[in-house]
Amino acid sequence: MGAAWWLLPPAVFLAGWQALAARGALNPLFFPAPSVLAGACVEMLKSGELGAQVGATLLRMLLGSVLGAVAGLACGLSMGAVGAIRRSLEPFISALNSTPKLVLLPMLMLFTGVGETARIVPVALTSFVILAMHALDAVRGVNQAYVELARNYGAGRSALVRRVYLPASLPGIFTGLRLAVGRSLVITVSIELVGARNGLGSMIWMAWQTFATEKLYIGVIATATLGALFHRGLQALEARLIPWGSRAERAA
């Protein structure tokens, strides 16, 4: 029962929305009833349109997230373990973190053309920066007594990273991973709004241009649902993979 509590607020909200729509208190042109949206969603699922749009968004987001997360994790762990690497890369990562990734889209299109590469690279950069910074902070927070003990037993730098820094940093890394996935979804849909012919962002933009209110709402709801599912899924994965994490965090 506890795991389903997060469904209660949206259920109450939808019930209130449906009640107001049924009483005619809302303009159906701007606020179609949830039952109407559900019917439109079913039709889009049957036609395959919604599945195709969600699939296009997920492909871009997951590809960019995975590429950026792997590189960011390696970079963050290296910066945390080796001071020279941290001093060399930290200013560049800080500068990249301050740069809105969406503004890079025209430049990437200039270099790579109007294709998927220009849409995926900003997503990868978003994931890379977040994972690198969280991994670095997590490594900095590792108890140095563990590091000294491992060194006394002859552990080199690679062994320290694999056996000490990485396991001790996993809670902080997972926090960064949840944040990176959420931000990657935001960036993906934002890019699709202005620079793609398919995906949820493109669907939302086209629905706005054609005043297809139901499709607009369905696109926004689908995006929010994906974000919630990824967040809960990563929380469950963290609870399974990190038994030494805090009990409170696993129960959240």
Topology (SSEs and partners):
Blueprint: H1 8-22, H2 34-47, H3 49-81, H4 83-97, H5 105-112, H6 116-140, H7 144-152, H8 157-195, H9 200-210, H10 213-241, H11 247-251
Helix pairs in contact: 2-10, 3-4, 3-6, 3-8, 3-9, 4-6, 5-6, 6-8, 8-9, 8-10, 9-10
Can you tell me about this structure?
This protein has helices at residues 8-22, 34-47, 49-81, 83-97, 105-112, 116-140, 144-152, 157-195, 200-210, 213-241, 247-251. It is elongated. With 252 residues, it is mainly α. Helix 2 packs across helix 10, helix 3 (49-81) runs parallel beside helix 6 and helix 6 packs antiparallel against helix 8 (157-195). The longest helix is centred in the last third of the chain and has 39 residues, at 157-195. The model is unreliable at 247-252 (pLDDT under 50). The protein has one domain: MetI-like fold (Orthogonal Bundle), CATH 1.10.3720.
